[in-house]
Fold this protein.
Amino acid sequence: MIEALATLVLIATGLCFLYAAFTDFRSWKIHNQTVLALILLFAIYAACEPYIALTWFPSVHLATALGAGALLFVTGFLLWQFKLLGAGDAKLMFPIGLFLGWSNLMTYALFLIGFALLTMLLLRMPLPYGISKTWPGMRLNEIRRTGKVPYGVVMVAAFFAILYVNYKLTI
């Protein structure tokens, strides 16, 4: 029963992170409700975690999870103060830190740098023929024109990369 609940919570968490990335791509906004839902999902997962055995998902140690979330949030807040990151991106860093925990922060930072560089490179490349007339293509052209990058997409991609690596290492 508890494993089923934890599995549902992790599925909902993944969907919430995907929704945050989509809304950030669509409108450069990550809603407070999405971030609060992720924090609530973490609380439920943290309550279930001692009773389950998901070796591929980072285990929850509440103190280190809160520390990781706080460190990422403070980092995001400082980047927001310097206008390098949006407020929604800064808020999204807290639940990412909660779910990843302290032990995955360095790997997350490396994936984040890699995906950010890849994003910058892709934004400089021309779109394939016909793509610029589609909604994603028009949105990418708008992002290029304004120079405002939806970093929430990059952050969520790095988060999922960590989960994939952890999953592959435990199989």
Observations:
- The chain has a mean pLDDT of 91.
- The chain has one domain: 2-170.
- The CA atoms of residues 3 and 52 lie 6 Å apart.
- The helical segments are 2-27, 32-48, 62-81, 87-100, 105-124, 135-146, 151-170.
